[in-house]
Amino acid sequence: MNHQEFVKAYAPATVANVCCGFDVLGFALDQPGDEVWARQTEAPGITISAIHGIEGLSSDPAENVIGVVAQKMLDRLGVTHGLELQLHKGMPVGSGLGSSAASSAAAAFAVNELLGQPFTTLELVEYAMEGERKASGSAHADNVAPALLGGFVLVRAYDPLDVVPLGVPLALYCTVLYPQIELKTSLSRSILKQEIPLKKGIRQWGNLAGLMAGLLKKDYALLGRSLHDEIFEPERSVLIPLFKQVKEAALAAGALGAGISGSGPSIFALSASQSQAQAVQQAMEAVYAGSGIDTKSYVAQVPEQGVRLVAPSPLQPALPL
């Protein structure tokens, strides 16, 4: 490959936990997302030459998730040449939509393409997880796996890693409302109890099984009944202003179900059609109107494909070579 040629990969936002699937379930959105551009250099080592769309991220490859992921891959292959990376941030940080996962997944995919695809997409999940380890201290897969594989993904186990792609068995549209407040994942995790009552656990397992069955049987009603978090949402929702009212508004507007995206503060709602998801979006936004809290909202389809190669937008200026 010409060393002047960039490989460009786009990885989408993701919703993790999905109510009853805490730490084991996630799904991809078709937008927003991040791009990572990568090319080979003669000089060894990794450089991050540009970061667009956000301020404050380190360009030190040992401190930025895209550099960490790329270095792990080079180390595994014993590659001696270097890489130049650029990050185009298209999604908000700290939103609960898998921001670091999108960057990590895009980096893993771009570098893999650049090196001639030595790793399968499933193997890339483990490298992208190293970006999550850098970002949050935990190498979890419930965001990076759907970002790479698309659709719904079940993380059955970590030791060894067992990731089960479920695809998109039925048409689903997701409305996401992002209240622009700071909510650290560490705080959201710190308030969780380490033990749960047996009765709550049984109801949670039933909901997760019902959600899986609803997807595979293409049963919207069963899916909707199962989108219920018995354990974690009651504790975490107190950290998100107006959460209860937003969820009630989404359900009243016809959403199948709603809950906290990842560790928050974003709130997601699933619908069976785009028009329904747009109606849900209006209802959710109306709750925050006049609250003094700025919001962003998205309506996105749950896509079959996750990360993919892209060409630069015609509106986007070419990067210097």
Care to describe what's here?
It is a single chain. By secondary structure, the chain is of the alpha+beta class. The protein is 35% helix and 25% strand. It is built from 10 helices and 11 strands. It has helices spanning 65-77, 99-114, 121-136, 144-149, 185-190, 198-216, 220-226, 233-236, 243-252, 274-288, and strands at residues 7-16, 25-41, 46-52, 82-88, 152-158, 161-167, 173-179, 257-260, 267-271, 295-301, 308-309. Strands 1, 2, 3, 4, 5, 6 and 11 form a 7-stranded mixed β-sheet that branches. β3 (46-52), α1 and β4 form a beta-alpha-beta unit. α1 runs parallel beside α2 and α9 packs antiparallel against α10. The chain is globular. Mean pLDDT is 91; it is low at 313-321.
Task: Produce a short descriptive summary.
The protein has 321 residues and is α+β, with helices and mostly antiparallel strands.
Spell out the blueprint of helices and strands.
Blueprint: E1 7-16, E2 25-41, E3 46-52, H1 65-77, E4 82-88, H2 99-114, H3 121-136, H4 144-149, E5 152-158, E6 161-167, E7 173-179, H5 185-190, H6 198-216, H7 220-226, H8 233-236, H9 243-252, E8 257-260, E9 267-271, H10 274-288, E10 295-301, E11 308-309
